Amino acid sequence: MKGYRDMTREELLAERQELNERYENYKALNLTLDMTRGKPSPLQLDLSNDIYDVLNGDFKTAKGQDTRNYGIAEGIEEIRAVFGEILGTDKDNIFMGNSSSLNQMYDAIMRSMVFGEVDSPKPWAQVEGRKWLCPTPGYDRHFRVTETFGFELIPVPITEDGPDMDMVEELVKDEKVKGIWCVPCYSNPDGIVYSKETCERLAKMETAASDFRIFWDNAYVVHHLSEDRNEWGKLPDMLSLCESYGHANRVYEFASSSKITFAGGGISCFACNKDNMTYAKKYLNAQTICTNKVNQLAHARYLPNAEAVYQHMMKHAAILRPKFEACQNVLNEELGFDDLWHWTNPKGGYFVSFYAMPGTATKIVSMCKEAGVALTPAGASYPYGKDPQDSNIRLAPSFPVIEDIEKAVRILAICAKITAVDKLLEDLK
Amino acid sequence: MKGYRDMTREELLAERQELNERYENYKALNLTLDMTRGKPSPLQLDLSNDIYDVLNGDFKTAKGQDTRNYGIAEGIEEIRAVFGEILGTDKDNIFMGNSSSLNQMYDAIMRSMVFGEVDSPKPWAQVEGRKWLCPTPGYDRHFRVTETFGFELIPVPITEDGPDMDMVEELVKDEKVKGIWCVPCYSNPDGIVYSKETCERLAKMETAASDFRIFWDNAYVVHHLSEDRNEWGKLPDMLSLCESYGHANRVYEFASSSKITFAGGGISCFACNKDNMTYAKKYLNAQTICTNKVNQLAHARYLPNAEAVYQHMMKHAAILRPKFEACQNVLNEELGFDDLWHWTNPKGGYFVSFYAMPGTATKIVSMCKEAGVALTPAGASYPYGKDPQDSNIRLAPSFPVIEDIEKAVRILAICAKITAVDKLLEDLK
């Protein structure tokens, strides 16, 4: 098939007619399909249904501590050891939270707002015009946190290797730039794995702010679609890397079991170096007596080490792979004939990032909605929800069943084609 | 037996000799007894060991929502209904947290520090010389939170009816006074239940600060030692009460299941009026996607209403009552002969508050330590850890077994007598 740009006005009009029929046919089906959020599917959640069976009336840690009672603010040792193994750092660098790692990120910035970091000249709330770097497209909930705290969100384009480091190195010369959001493994939504060089440069660069922080959200650290173990653990341990360049305080790392066990009932953690940890604990020990240790124990018994996590994640991958493949197949089938659009084919994570013809994403999303397909709002992956190209649409194929994914992606593709044809016809006028 | 003040120097010396022998005998036993924290005992925790059995592979709420997945930031409806019933307020006024209600209190003040309250002229972090009222003796962890946030802690003596309201009404004329800690039911450590008049006056009083807040920590709302249902639910619903006096925004109420199910794995909540809730949610929805809903579901199925909670709490009471009685018996036996000291005999909660002869509490605690009895540091229940009378010692009889309580309290009583005799001998010099 010819590319649209090579078509005559008549050919485009004919194509438009055909696409419109297909679109109307789908509309007539009164579908309700949801591709909005990166949620695990019920089948994936079922994998952990027996997680509390391991408790079996015995709530004591290996050391004999009663998880049902108060205490052990940093979390029980055995679960810190599991996350330590996954993140490639020592268990003593880890502080356990409740189900939400986002909550830990928010709290970390909140602490800096009120008290400053250990190496801050003053609390961040007192820094007028504070700024935060946002590799873009990125995770909308990250952006919302720093927006809520009054940071100016500075977009930094993301490349195949991670954020554009030339730009980052330039931007951090501004002392008002206090930090950067990073999803280093299968970035949300592009599925990028940061290159070794990117990690090195992030660790090495000089920043004007003495208290610059990398928020290293390792949300998908074990969320590979492939069984190939070579795909695992490609990222360096960012804590050591920063330390090796003399910036030991630079990084907070985050992870959770939200997409390993239960998104609505898992456990999370953050990791940092000793200075940051000692300082954070001063406030964390005022904030709480402990997080949910019974849940930590259940997780530690259920997934006692990285190998157990690998085996468990392979069960997730077996469910997710065909969904991601279905997505690719429909996109290739419908849109492979032209390069007006492109999309990612990630090796892990939870998203396919679709780039429509610039200027059409908003229209595509609204047309999809009319046909019963809920998509994340166009621009959602950009600071302030504004994609300057109006091109990116984040697809989340994890939750729906394959049949629904195929329908939803096909409708998306039809809408992408309709809007492209309309745009080209407009240009021909 | 004669009171010490009626004894001659010789009689006191003889008494001292005898007490010393008893003390040394206990010391020789090399005991390790802990009466420091209000922790439930293993037997109490055992009461809820089967709490996760109710899940039984079915993780859906009554409305069919999957608790294992993301969403429902405010918590599932059925558990909000249970806490609503307990607190005498509507479920829509309730926002669920994870295991720690202290964490919710800390976060609430943190929000006010950075963003202010809905009716604040400016964020509290910008209020130089901000102050907080601390009914005293009170809960050390409360005081620590407001101290951490840089509030000056203003002690207000607690009476049989709650905080001294004449003083409170006077103090709130200072606009720098932003709030007050209250444990209205079985206050920590005195076991006071606020009178209806105290509640009324707290709700009614005019405060100079437009954004004055009562932190109503209903930690022991269902923690009665008596089976008498008349003891239950004596407190007014503070939300309605404040509203009825035109101060609807005044109160945040807190509760948790820490001493109902698991201290290290329960659930907590806060309650407030609509304006506060809408405002708080603006930030809470940036902070987290949801708290642990699987645990909420387990709790809602395990304790589906206030009656189920009552039945469950009566099992706790059956374990706790003999411990509190043992405490009273030993204190009466050893110290009932004199009024140099006094102590509380609470109808609920987790503490017995012992008032030694002024100027002796620190010495008593250190002598107890030497004899293997760990007590909360003298002064712990006072702002900045300083009891101006050096008199109060908080006893926590919940955790140890009865035999240990008897030993520990007897040693405490002996030390109280020794220090009193020494003080009186000193005065006779």
For this entry, give a set of tags:
41% helix; Aspartate Aminotransferase, domain 1; 2 domains; eight-stranded mixed β-sheet; 13 helices; alpha/beta; 429 residues; 13% strand; Aspartate Aminotransferase, domain 2; homodimer; globular; three-stranded antiparallel β-sheet
How would you sum up this structure, described in words?
The structure is a homodimer of 429-residue chains. Chain A folds into 2 domains: 4-44 and 313-428, Aspartate Aminotransferase, domain 1 (Alpha-Beta Complex); 61-304, Aspartate Aminotransferase, domain 2 (3-Layer(aba) Sandwich), CATH 3.40.640. Helix content of chain A is 41%, strand content 13%. Chain A has 13 helices and 13 strands. In chain A, a hairpin with a 2-residue loop joins strand 4 and strand 5. In chain A, 55% of the residues are buried. At the A-B interface, helix 4, helix 5, helix 9 and helix 10 of A face helix 4, helix 5, helix 9 and helix 10 of B.
Of all chain pairs, the largest interface belongs to: A-B, 51 and 51 residues
Average pLDDT score of chain A:
97
Quaternary form: homodimer
Q: Which CATH C-level class of the largest domain in chain A is it?
A: Alpha Beta
Number of strands of chain A: 13
Structural class of chain A: alpha/beta
Remind me, CATH topology of the largest domain in chain A? Aspartate Aminotransferase, domain 2
- What distance separates the N and C termini of chain A? 23 Å
The outline of chain A comes out as globular
Runs of chain A in which pLDDT lies below 50 for 5 or more consecutive residues are none
Helix content of chain A: 40-55%
Query: What topology, given as strand order, has the largest sheet of chain A?
Result: 2-9-8-7-6-3-4-5
